[in-house]
Description:
By secondary structure, the protein is mainly alpha-helical. The protein has 16 helices and no strands. The protein has helices at residues 2-11, 17-36, 40-68, 70-73, 83-86, 91-109, 114-136, 140-148, 150-160, 165-186, 190-196, 201-204, 209-228, 236-255, 263-268, 270-284. The mean pLDDT is 97.
Amino acid sequence: MHHFKIFIEITRLTKPIGFMLLFWPCSWGLAYAYIENSNFSLFVYYLFLFFLGSVLMRSAGCIFNDIVDKDFDKKVQRTKYRPIATGKITVTHALVYVLILCLIAFLVLIQFNLFTILLGLGSMFLAFSYPFMKRITYWPQLFLGFTFNWGIIMAWVAFHNSITIEIVLLYISAIFWTLGYDTIYGAQDMSDDEIIGLKSTSIKFKNNIHMFVSTSYVISIGFMLFLFKNFVGQNAFTFLFLIFILSLIYQLIILKKNNPNQYLGLFKTNNVSGLFLFLGIFSISL
């Protein structure tokens, strides 16, 4: 029971926002692919597989991140009680968990076509190099954008076995979405991170966080508007897409008030954003 508790803690399974933010882009890619390939049972099956993959890979990523960051985590108020930082679990034990999770994720991955499997294996490189980025660049959030939205491309390829310019545009727009929301998330740890020498866009733009997040969100919406311009009209898509946009505007309005206690809540709002964009893209195919 004790091991189970530590496992839940170290994989952050009680904080679903992490795997949901990994899953929503996958769902967008699937819904977008489904417009042209209306095999509903396959769509639902793939949705389930990508959800499973998101939970597994995010859990493995959390553990690996904590292994890499164990000495830093001790010095940050928000992370100093994490199991590896406090010594509740050894690094070796934690690595065994990472391996098991990756193996199960691989079993999920091999349900897809070869192209998707290769893309999935490629994403492992992104996922496991991410924790090192905040040591070497002020743009770890950009790298997270590449990593967390990779599922968009994979989902499309799972259906169509090819990459098109449209799906790349959706991927780019999602990267800017991540750049925005993860800068809000990073703003929680700015004072601690600066002391221990970690970098982030939150620190780089600390005097203009609102402007930076606004710019990221505007670019993200711009790409999406360009991509979906043919679907805009008096329909469900436009209504749902509008809610997505309003959810980002809401974050910007609250962010302007500069209250650090609200940053985590704002970050979590993106779960709603992701859901409404998924419903919007899915509604196109109805």
